[in-house]
């Protein structure tokens, strides 16, 4: 399926913004500190975005292999595609947030008379997703049409059988009109059946509502687990790069401290995602019990 291939170019995306400020002598320490905080927040989100894109590529590659398995049902495929779509949306939102943060930082520097030299190379994840998704329209639509045709034929056959059954029952009813007792008994039986069906319908409705909540929570958990896994992999790489930088002796203590701060904040972000996953799992257990 071509949908998996659309993220391959994203392996060569380098989201980086060189923000260097020629600080005037009258810039206060508070302003410098605020600028560093904003730059670190941007770096954190960029790390999360890069890890997420790489993780999504790996997940889609695995999904492509699973789809070829004959034991994989259409329902499982649809659910996984829905989850991957939500992950893509989450990454698109993060990409938009990074752009907003960069613009806010630029405005903040201008406001505080800090000269800014910007060099920006950003490839929007959302545009990549949109372009490649459009290429899949024909294949996806064809599969959907096949499924609809299959269901329509099944429904048509069921309706035919239902009409034949209704005709047979009507003949039996006409033959039994001469027996009033049987008519009354049949009426009572139907009334009881209606009451029973009403009760069963109410129970089925409640069960369906509960299952819908469970499905929504499970989707959210799957999305967060995909992002968490990618984030952890990216965090390991960041730590390895930091250790190499320390050993090289070419990095200042200030730069090392800044990178350690970024890694710590990424870890905190990942911990919050894990907490959200645990909370959703508890809610699912509560609903199932």
Gyration radius, to the nearest Å?
Answer: 30 Å
Order of helices and strands: EHHEHHHH
Which class of secondary structure composition applies to the elements? mainly alpha
**Quick check: average pLDDT?**
77
Q: Largest sheet, described in full?
A: 2 strands, antiparallel
Task: Report how far apart the termini are.
Answer: 39 Å
* Unreliable stretches covering 5 or more consecutive residues: 1-25, 118-126, 132-137
Q: Strand order across the biggest sheet?
A: 1-2
Number of domains: 3
- Broad shape: elongated
Helicity level: over 70%
Strands, total number: 2
Number of helices: 6
Describe the structure.
The relative contact order is 0.12. The two termini are 39 Å apart. A two-stranded antiparallel ribbon has the order 1-2. α1 (29-67) packs across α5. The chain is built from six helices and two strands. The protein has three domains: 1-135, no CATH class; 138-175; 206-289. With 289 residues, it is mostly helical.
Please name the defining characteristics of this protein.
289 residues; mainly alpha; two-stranded antiparallel ribbon; 6 helices; 80% helix; elongated; disordered N terminus
Briefly summarize what is shown:
By secondary structure, the protein is mostly helical.
Draw up the topology in text.
Elements: E1 16-22, H1 29-67, H2 74-111, E2 115-121, H3 125-135, H4 137-175, H5 180-248, H6 253-288
Antiparallel strand pairs: 1-2
């Amino acid at each position: 399926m071509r949908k998996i291939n659309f993220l391959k170019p994203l392996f060569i995306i380098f989201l980086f913004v060189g923000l260097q400020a020629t600080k005037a002598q009258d810039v206060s320490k508070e302003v410098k500190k605020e600028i560093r905080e904003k730059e670190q927040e941007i770096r954190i989100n960029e790390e999360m975005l890069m890890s997420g894109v790489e993780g999504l590529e790996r997940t889609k590659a695995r999904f492509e292999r699973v789809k070829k398995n004959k034991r994989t049902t259409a329902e499982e495929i649809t659910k996984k595609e829905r989850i991957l779509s939500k992950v893509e949306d989450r990454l698109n939102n993060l990409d938009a947030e990074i752009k907003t943060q960069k613009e806010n930082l630029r405005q903040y520097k201008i406001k505080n008379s800090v000269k800014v030299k910007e060099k920006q190379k950003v490839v929007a994840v959302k545009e990549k997703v949109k372009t490649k998704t459009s290429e899949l329209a024909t294949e996806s639509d064809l599969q959907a049409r096949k499924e609809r045709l299959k269901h329509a034929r099944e429904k048509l056959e069921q309706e035919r059988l239902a009409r034949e059954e209704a005709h047979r029952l009507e003949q039996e009813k006409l033959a039994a009109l001469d027996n009033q007792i049987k008519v009354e008994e049949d009426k009572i039986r139907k009334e009881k059946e209606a009451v029973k069906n009403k009760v069963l319908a109410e129970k089925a409705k409640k069960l369906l509502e509960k299952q819908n909540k469970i499905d929504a929570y499970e989707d959210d958990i799957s999305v967060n687990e995909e992002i968490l896994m990618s984030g952890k992999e990216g965090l390991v790489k960041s730590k390895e790069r930091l250790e190499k930088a320390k050993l090289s002796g070419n990095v200042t203590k200030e730069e090392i401290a800044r990178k350690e701060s970024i890694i710590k904040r990424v870890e905190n972000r990942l911990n919050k995602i894990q907490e959200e996953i645990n909370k959703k799992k508890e809610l699912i257990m509560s609903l199932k019990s």
